[in-house]
Amino acid sequence: MANLATGTAPKKLSRRNASLGDRIFDTLNIIFLCLLMVVTLYPFLNTLALSLNRAMDSIRGGIYIWPRDVSLENYKYVFQQSTIFHATLISILRLVIGSITTVFCSAMVAYTISREDFVLRKFITIAFVLTAYVNPGLIPNYLNIRDLGLIDSFWVYIWPGLIGVFNLILIRSFIDGLPDSILESGRIDGAGEFRTFFSIVLPLCLPVLATVALFTAVYQWNSWLDVFLYNSSNIKLSTLQYELQKILQNSSASSSAASAFSNPDAAANAVTPLAVRATMTIVASVPMILMYPFLQKYFVKGMMVGGVKG
After folding, report:
1. Fewer beta carbons within 10 angstroms: which end of the chain, N or C?
2. For the packed helices 165-176 and 84-114, what is the interaxial angle rounded to 10 degrees?
3. Which of 11-20, 61-70, 93-102, 147-156 is predicted least confidently?
4. What pLDDT, on the 0 to 100 scale, is given for residue 96?
5. Residue 156 CA to chain centroid, in angstroms?
6. Does domain 84-235 bear CATH number 1.10.3720.10?
7. Domain spans of the chain?
8. What is the C-alpha to C-alpha distance for residues 72 and 275, in angstroms, rounded to an integer?
9. What is the model's pTM?
10. What is the largest CA-CA distance in the chain?
């Protein structure tokens, strides 16, 4: 079809017409991306193979991306623990409640300090940023949590990290990049600050909110130190990550005991710290792997905050 503007046929791009330099560049790019894919996938595939291989056989080494002696004993050992399912429920509740509250509260504060007519805008921004540079330490933080009455409480997983400085700056930068005409049109129609925030700002900030939600979900799911510090005496508030840490510690003792048995079947089915660590990694990473594809398009957009201004 002729080009309507110039009356000439458009040129067709073909690899046969590409120069030698372009072909070399494309070939090197393909090789580099293939190597990057291998480097990225190999650790996960190797860990998966170790988790599906018989533990005592894994000690011999030589397992790469495929199990040599397939067995589900490692997963049976992990899931036969009586507290594992309740701990998983607590981790899911922590992930859902923590992610929703963190995203919502961070978005509200970010919208507030992004308004130029807000009197305390600079003061509050500086106060939040200073917390990223000044860390009070473990003991003062523990005393603060104790004085707030959050010891042996589920809310110790939520309130301390309700508003993160990184999340706050990320959302505020995205809001600053929104066209002022959109917000002004809402105010002309009689929308107040709350209606502007819920009806205009939140829908437009969906990419960056999804990014913050992903960061928060990963943190909430993987965190176990706060369980050890504040709720280690309450088994009902234990999370999956903390229980997996305890299973890993117990696996060394069980492996040593099994190796002393005269029954060869018991020794063959014994677990090892290496196998348990691989199994724990797979169990803990599967929820995040399943979550990421649904947030990928928003994650990519959110990470481009500040790249293009409207």
Report:
1. N
2. 40
3. 11-20
4. 92
5. 19
6. yes
7. 15-81+239-303, 84-235
8. 11
9. 0.74
10. 89
